[in-house]
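Fill in residues.
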């Protein structure tokens, strides 16, 4: 049980035993289980809550937990906010403030995308802001690292002194490369997402390449069309065919569901390609329940069928493409029977998919989710699908994400300040030590990872973590834990709550929520630039990323202008050249960015070296050893690793749950109650073979670790040989291990991305 010290008293961070079972947690007093106290002098406590309306018979001095309905009914002011989470929806929010206190949030009803609704994750944002386990002051570790950690409150002056003195000593003794940082998308805001990075550029720190998200898709694009296809999410409603491939918008892109429903009601067809039955399957005309990691084989089989049956746009191929012959030769061997054997599906589904795609080729939306790219063969799988859209002459129908593109991040990060070279798809050359996100555990434990950089003789001696919760979100979590447990590793964490990662910190710095600072958000999942107003003052002594960069940079003795930037400087930077004024954006809260049309894209040609749609290319050959797409079985799969498969014959996938988001919301009681038990979903045949019944306690394990789960055996939910358990739970809250104790930290085929979904396990009764 973690504790902090307050006025010479030991105070628990979490009022429960970490070993408590999930079932016990739900049966217990969950709404009070994480409370730390309400004293204004508390280290991580918020200000006293005002009394709400009392139920009849309740004493005058009592308080009521939850939302303050009396305050909601009071006269207040409404403000525009924008959710800065790493989510496809980027919800546009209306925030109500009464007497300087946030009392209510709801979706912006005037925006066509958000349309007044928020996802289940964010319905309790008011409670999120004023939780009693908010970190409000800097803290210093006084006990061991990890569970059972103890902290005491210190001043900002002391925290900065400790941090900068330690960094200066490390630089003098081991060079800047002995320091690194780790950040991800806990903050998607244009200003604050990367504005701390210049501090580490200046120190010459080991470069961290953030690559836990969408690298498989993004780094596949240069070989086909060269750019992200932009379309309005609202346009889904007007399509004749919606293809959901390795995607579950009900959990990860909720606001698109209403457009999918509208399309279906109007008579549109739906295809779902997924190892797991998802809600869209209730309306699907075709459900292709293939085995995990075989997406590329299925796509190549569809390509062969389209070619063999003259279902190709010959004029588009002739005028706008190169490499068609290479592609046709590569897919020629992928007969429907071979696809069926590799993918574990009926052979006739190849033809059924191809026929629907060709019939609706001019009015199709083909949407892929992030999980497919998070595999050892994810990048090539994306190319396999993209090339289908070239065959039918409509590459614009395929989108993995849509975005307003209104705000970049390079200016905030001041990337011009970073003059070193790090590896890319095109070159392995590097002039500075670096690593990609999945390798965090290897880096911190001294393994020599990637591009010949040595982490054993010159180990990382300090890491600063912000905008991320790697003890929830990173793969091969047991190795990450081993690294963070090092007593000789000086760890600084900047966060809102005491996350599982904070438990390993030496210095903890309080971060604000996005309601406590101004921000600009480009649309992520839609085409609206969003404005986020600062609606309340920062709680306690929390400090945003921009101010923190200035504070630490100046304390290190750096005089560069980048460590003197103001919020007004950043605001001007991002509004420069926009089609709206600051005042217009503040008043409305969002701006509709017109997407570039398909016709306009064709006028200038594709963003590839050839200016053509590329079925094959010399660039792909140089970077990946093949001119056109090929199917490579996942190295952690039945075909790719028969010996490993013999030991661990179940492919485990770990998609997003609707109640959580990466490393966020795992401490919210309401979210945990809605989520319920930590289940593993099994195919009925696999369960029967193992003597497992629905509701049994089971152990899921491989060489990386093990997790305990409750078995759910529901007919038709999982493909044979496949299991699913959801990500993002906090073991400090649930009492059971996070799925990333068993996921792989291997480097995916494109962009040094993550391979969470390449995960073989065995499952046995506990």
């Amino acid at each position: 049980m973690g504790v902090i010290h307050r006025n010479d008293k030991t105070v628990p961070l979490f009022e429960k035993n970490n070993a408590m079972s999930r079932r016990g947690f739900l049966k217990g007093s969950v709404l009070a289980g994480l409370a730390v106290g309400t004293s204004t002098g508390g280290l991580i406590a918020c200000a006293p809550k005002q009394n709400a309306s009392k139920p009849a018979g309740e004493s005058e001095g009592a308080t009521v937990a939850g939302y303050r309905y009396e305050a909601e009914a009071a006269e207040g002011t409404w403000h525009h906010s924008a959710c800065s989470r790493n989510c496809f929806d980027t919800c546009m929010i209306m925030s109500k403030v009464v007497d300087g206190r946030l009392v209510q949030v709801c979706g912006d009803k005037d925006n066509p995308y958000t349309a007044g609704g928020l996802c289940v994750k964010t319905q309790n944002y008011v409670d999120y802001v004023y939780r009693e386990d908010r970190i409000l002051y800097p803290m210093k570790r006084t006990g061991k690292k990890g569970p059972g950690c103890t902290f005491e409150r210190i001043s900002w002056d002391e925290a900065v002194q400790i941090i900068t003195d330690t960094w200066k000593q490390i630089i003098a003794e081991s060079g800047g490369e002995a320091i690194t940082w780790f950040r991800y998308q806990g903050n998607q805001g244009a200003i604050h997402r990367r504005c701390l990075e210049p501090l580490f550029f200046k120190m010459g720190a080991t470069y961290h390449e953030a690559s836990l998200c969408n690298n498989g898709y993004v780094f596949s694009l240069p070989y086909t069309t060269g750019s992200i296809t932009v379309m309005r999410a609202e346009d889904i409603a007007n399509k004749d065919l919606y293809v959901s491939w390795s995607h579950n918008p009900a959990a990860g892109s909720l606001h698109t569901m209403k457009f999918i429903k509208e399309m279906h009601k109007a008579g549109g067809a739906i295809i779902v390609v997924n190892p797991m039955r998802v809600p869209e399957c209730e309306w699907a005309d075709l459900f292709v329940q293939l085995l995990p990691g075989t997406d590329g084989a299925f796509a190549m089989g569809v390509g062969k069928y389209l070619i063999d049956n003259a279902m190709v746009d010959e004029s588009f191929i002739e005028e706008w493409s190169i490499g068609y012959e290479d592609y046709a030769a590569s897919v020629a061997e992928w007969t429907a029977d071979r696809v069926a054997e590799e993918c574990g599906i009926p052979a006739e589904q190849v033809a059924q998919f191809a026929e629907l795609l060709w019939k609706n080729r001019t009015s199709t939306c083909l949407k892929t989710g992030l999980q497919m790219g998070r595999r050892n063969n994810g990048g090539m799988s994306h190319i396999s699908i993209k090339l289908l859209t070239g065959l039918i002459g409509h590459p614009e129908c395929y989108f993995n994400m849509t975005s307003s593109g209104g705000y970049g991040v390079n200016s905030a990060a001041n990337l011009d300040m970073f003059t070193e070279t790090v590896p890319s798809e095109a070159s392995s050359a590097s002039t500075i030590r670096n690593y990609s996100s999945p390798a965090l555990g290897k880096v911190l434990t001294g393994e020599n990872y990637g591009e010949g950089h040595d982490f054993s003789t010159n180990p990382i001696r300090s890491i600063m973590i912000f905008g991320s919760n790697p003890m929830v979100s990173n793969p091969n979590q047991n190795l990450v834990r081993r690294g963070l447990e090092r007593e000789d590793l000086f760890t600084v964490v900047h966060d809102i709550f005491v996350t599982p990662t904070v438990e390993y910190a030496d210095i903890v710095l309080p971060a604000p929520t996005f309601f406590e600072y101004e921000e600009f958000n480009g649309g992520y999942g839609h085409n609206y630039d969003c404005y986020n107003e600062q609606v309340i003052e920062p709680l306690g002594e929390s400090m945003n990323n921009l101010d923190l960069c200035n504070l630490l940079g100046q304390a290190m003795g750096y005089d560069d202008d980048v460590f003197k930037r103001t919020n007004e400087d950043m605001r001007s930077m991002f509004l420069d050249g926009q089609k709206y004024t600051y005042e217009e954006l503040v008043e409305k809260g969002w701006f509709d960015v017109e997407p570039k049309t398909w016709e306009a894209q064709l006028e200038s040609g594709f963003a590839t070296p050839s200016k053509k749609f590329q079925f094959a290319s010399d660039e792909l050959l140089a970077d990946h050893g093949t001119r056109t797409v090929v199917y490579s079985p996942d190295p952690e799969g039945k075909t790719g690793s028969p010996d490993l498969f013999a030991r661990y014959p179940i492919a485990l996938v770990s998609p997003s749950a609707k109640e959580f988001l990466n490393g966020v919301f795992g401490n919210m009681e309401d979210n945990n109650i809605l989520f319920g038990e930590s289940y593993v979903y099994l195919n009925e045949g696999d369960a029967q073979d193992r003597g497992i019944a629905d509701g049994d306690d089971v152990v899921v394990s491989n060489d990386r670790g093990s997790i305990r789960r409750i078995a759910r055996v529901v007919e038709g939910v999982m493909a044979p040989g496949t299991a699913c358990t959801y990500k993002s739970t906090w073991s400090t809250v649930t009492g059971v291990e996070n799925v990333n104790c068993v996921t792989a930290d291997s480097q995916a085929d494109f962009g040094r991305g993550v391979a969470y979904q390449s995960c073989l396990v065995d499952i046995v009764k506990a």
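Residues 1-68 have pLDDT under 50 and may be disordered.
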